Amino acid sequence: MSHGLYADQHSFEELASSLLTDERTCSFGKLHVITIGQNQSEDTWSAIWDKAERIADSILHQRLGRTDACLEIKPGQYLLLFPGLSEEEGIIKATAIGREIRERLFGQTLATLEVKVQMMPLARLKGRERVAKAETMHHVLDSHDKQAGIHFDVLFQPLWSPRRQEIIGNLARIRRVFGDRELFGRAILFGGDSDPLALEANACLRRAAARISHPCGMLVLPQFINEHALKDSGEMAVDLHSLAKTLPGTLVVELSGDIVSLPRVALRGLVGMAREAGARVAVRSIPDAESAHMFKSNGIDFISVNEADIRALGLTPSATHALFTVAAHEVRGSGLDIWLWNAIAPQDIKRAANLGFALFSGPPVGEQKSVPASPHSLPANQIFRGG
Prior knowledge:
alpha/beta; Alpha-Beta Plaits; 2 domains; ten-stranded mixed β-sheet; elongated
């Protein structure tokens, strides 16, 4: 390749060394074309990847300036060097290039690929052995990515049954700390329903479930479903089989996202995968009567309503209670049990329990913790005290 002035590794490293010596403002980084899913045959995938490399190579050749440098370190991974550009200026330029590559890839129906960009000040390399070597740059970028990447935690919320007046299980809930805020559930997916981050969130929930070391009763395991998660269903199936063996008869896979709009064949495939693994299936939704019967006919057992999502809509308490009534009415007669998650007030639980909601999670039920609660008695008068 001949991007900018420098094509070979020696020239690239010589430029980096001279820039470090001159104390100039510079930035370096990596542009990486990555795979999101690979369900195609080997021949099809090879053709797709060849086309993706040609597109990336062409755009890099067009968009990099005469003094910029680019080195292909392996297929689809490029080290970039921007003399005269700060980290902020470098990330703007590299992101624009990455966006153009991604748009061209999607234009070629290559939706299984994504483009990731990292940039850092070149001065970050000072004080290291082999300071200007491409290998050192790559190592520094990878190390920083691992330290500064997105991290998820999983907390468990106790599940309370008003009929049994007991904590009978746990709901896994994903948490992301963003700045000084705690974000839960769908709030972590800034990219909306199509966010590829759903893959890591789902896997993080499954890993947390696999670490449970004591009996915790029913475990409701959310899995956010979008186009990326559907392509990852093979890995999900392997994990669910393993979990169902260690949590026999207690695992419930809760599908969330735009489930109502899923093609029926995709929905049946997901439900069949969970059932084959030995799990039951819930859907997080507020369905109408037709959708509720459709869910039941496709093998789904439970509907869960997430009060946290309702609160995000800005509804008043009276409107929220009215929505509980509507949800219970639409589900009634379908054969589905209905649950309420993340209730914040005893009166919400009391109102929903009177409407036929069967399970609850949220502050009145108990604190969320990194270790799931063991089943135990919790009388209704403790839940509703003060309510």
